[in-house]
Amino acid sequence: MNAKTVTLTDNETGKQIELEVLEPTIGPPTINISSLYKDMGFFTFDPGFMSTASCESAITYMCGETGVLAYRGYPIEQLAKNSNYLETCYLLFYGELPYNKAFNEFTDMICQHTMIHEALKKFYDGFRRDAHPMAIMVGVTGALSAFYNDHCDIRNSYDREVVAHRLIAKMPTIAAWSYRYANGLPFVYPDASLNYTENFLHMMFSVPSKPYKVKPIHAKALDLIMLLHADHEQNASTSTVRLSGSSEANPYAAVAAGIATLWGPAHGGANEAVIQMLQDIVNSDNSISDYVKRAKDKNDTFRLMGFGHRVYKTYDPRAKLIREVCHEILEHHSGDTQLEKILDVAMTLEKIALEDEYFISRNLYPNVDFYSGIIFLAIGIPMNMFTVIFSMSRTIGWISHWNEMMQADQLRIGRPRQLYTGKPIRSYPEAKE
Ligand code: SDX
What we know:
Elements: E1 5-9, E2 16-22, E3 30-31, H1 36-40, E4 60-63, E5 68-71, E6 74-75, H2 76-82, H3 85-94, H4 100-112, H5 121-125, H6 133-143, H7 157-182, H8 196-205, H9 216-228, H10 236-246, H11 251-262, H12 270-283, H13 288-296, H14 317-332, H15 337-354, H16 357-361, H17 369-379, H18 386-407
Antiparallel strand pairs: 1-2, 2-3, 4-5, 5-6
């Protein structure tokens, strides 16, 4: 059967071009414009990539209209119910769910890589104590490229696996130590007898002076949050890792670039900004409606953090699942009035916004960041660590996309063009006035 095509006509010259339509497994068909400039002399213009597929991928599918999110074809709701973060890491990277032996081998491999080179501890000392932990994450993760140069042949699939195993294993250690350093606490080494999220909480909160036992409800809630944040198609930070990786850059450095991108409040930094907003509202004399009014005011830079999404034009499926966990974990923290006040404000804010024409007409719904911070607070995780946990979780997404790109038959460096609207070519003045 002939490939489907679309015709583009230059109405000025009458010149036409047939462009091939690429059919996806699911989702919108995609027009292949790669020959457009060569054949027609045109660029396409799409700031923010509102209508542009930057690559082909088999990792994650999402539909903004129906609120579908699936990792390797498995709906996020089913993975949330039946899987865990580490099994999801295996699924995202290798493409299939692991079965007993394979998963045990994977888990053992991750356990073997959780320590980081002792010299990397010195990197923390170079930061001010009040450095934002995300600044430390960018720096220390980038520094991995100076320590782990064995198995860095990016054309070798085994070496790419080793890079992935090291990053999955070491991010919790690097993340927990960024918290310990900021709080003047001694570093706690990984404990291989604990599972992935228990080990992270152990490195975050245990102290030499007394026994520390991870609360199962905390480990379970954190594991679900990490599973839900693991990957999300071609979001800004994943696109950064792909673009960095396309130049054949060191993968640890490429992931550090992804962390830097995630830090922004328009992206992964929103979870911290949501709690700041909710706490401001709780402590303010202004009403919630006043804040909703400000969010709608074009002359006010205030936005409802945790609301809206470039792709989801309905409820973010992850937000629904995280909201359920909020209620569960607050049952275990009943009596924590500040937390209860914050959740009450969040629920009221959501209700008011979802009944307001401004938000309805713009399809603005709560996104993954709207409720996650409440759970982090309940676990005892400080606000400036929220995006650090997001970066720890999204590492598997970044490295799975990097690996997928490196497997491609022909790796091409990403190099977008532009619509130039600057000065015409002009001569340097003979005598400057
Ligand atoms: C994440 O891409 C991903 O997948 C990201 C992520 C992932 O898992 O990787 O899902 C994680 O980053 C979630 C998003 C977290 N960010 C926030 O919660 C910050 C608040 N949200 C907004 O900044 C905004 O909604 C974005 C950045 C998320 C999306 O921005 P878009 O797609 O560029 O939309 P836009 O800015 O063009 O907004 C469209 C309209 C505008 O109004 P008009 O110009 O049409 O009148 O909606 C308005 C915006 O002003 N709007 C908001 C709003 N978000 C959009 N108005 C008030 N409050 C908001 N939060």
